[in-house]
Amino acid sequence: MNTDKRVKKERKHWDKLAPRYDRYIEKHWKIYPSLLDKIAEDIETGSTVLDVATGTGSVALRVAQRASRIHAIDISGPVIEEAKKKVDEKGIKNIEFSVEDAYSLPFNDGMFDIVVCENALHNMIEPAKALSEIRRVLKPGGRLIATVAGIGESRRFRFMMTIFKFFTAFPVFHKLNLGELASMIAKSGLATMKKDIMKHPKDVFPVIYIVAERSNSELNT
Ligand SMILES: C[S@@+](CC[C@H](N)C(=O)[O-])C[C@H]1O[C@@H](n2cnc3c(N)ncnc32)[C@H](O)[C@@H]1O
């Protein structure tokens, strides 16, 4: 698939949902407050953070006090506009937002202590390309915190998503389980340090949570 077609497919839904995105999360992902707390706990104070596929900026806003500096990117312009409004309202100064493609990040090698990619790799057509870029921009010893909807964790979840996609054209391109996400991350050259599956009783799908490290002994290999 050529890049223009792929980008169009990846951003279309989120462009439209942008003004209603936060309400959608509140309604369908009751796990978010505890998920964001867990992400914040895995970020050391003073870290430089990249939030890949930030959406309306939930991770960036939650960890702003902990991080020294945050770049937050998304392929959808309208969601970035929503995120900027919230940051301006709160007067937060250490977050910079821009519209970028996770498959080609405009950052130098080894720039970040932490990259977070919350609930988005399954919404990318070729997540391996994003993971390769994420590894490149991480410092040696730096960490990726990746979460995805665990649709591949059971046949029931897979079936429900197939039906949901049929009626809504919801852009889920991968129905991942923990093993599949861990293996994708390992292929990108990052070593899994922590893994977990979280589920709020009111949510339909669980969330897979992985922290993975770029080896300390390598430099851009
Ligand atoms: C389910 S939303 C998650 C947003 C946010 N991380 C959160 O947890 O609320 C998925 C996001 O992935 C973004 N996305 C999809 N493909 C992308 C790509 N190639 N580069 C950057 N962002 C992408 C979409 O625009 C959308 O905002």
Give the arrangement of secondary structure elements.
Layout: H1 3-17, H2 21-28, H3 32-41, E1 48-52, H4 58-63, E2 69-74, H5 77-90, E3 95-99, E4 112-118, H6 127-137, E5 138-149, H7 155-168, H8 178-187, E6 190-198, E7 207-214
Parallel strand pairs: 1-2, 1-4, 2-3, 4-5
Antiparallel strand pairs: 5-7, 6-7
Bound molecules: S-adenosylmethionine.
S-adenosylmethionine binds next to helix 1.
Strand order of the largest sheet: 3-2-1-4-5-7-6
Number of strands: 7
Order of helices and strands: HHHEHEHEEHEHHEE
Largest sheet, if any? Answer: 7 strands, mixed
Name the poorly predicted regions: none
Global geometry: globular
- The CATH architecture can be named as 3-Layer(aba) Sandwich
Structural notes for this entry:
- There is one protein chain.
- The protein is α/β, with parallel strands linked by helices.
- It has one domain (3-214): Rossmann fold (3-Layer(aba) Sandwich), CATH 3.40.50.
- The chain has eight helices and seven strands.
- It has helices at residues 3-17, 21-28, 32-41, 58-63, 77-90, 127-137, 155-168, 178-187, and strands at residues 48-52, 69-74, 95-99, 112-118, 138-149, 190-198, 207-214.
- A seven-stranded mixed β-sheet has the order 3-2-1-4-5-7-6, with helices on both faces.
- The radius of gyration is 16 Å and the shape is globular.
- The two termini are 28 Å apart.
- The mean pLDDT is 96.
- Bound molecules: S-adenosylmethionine.
- Residues 10-11, 14, 25, 53-55, 58, 74-76, 79, 101-103, 118-120, 123-124 line the site of S-adenosylmethionine (SAM).
- Residues 10-11, 14, 25, 53-55, 58, 74-76, 79, 101-103, 118-120, 123-124 line the site of S-adenosylmethionine.
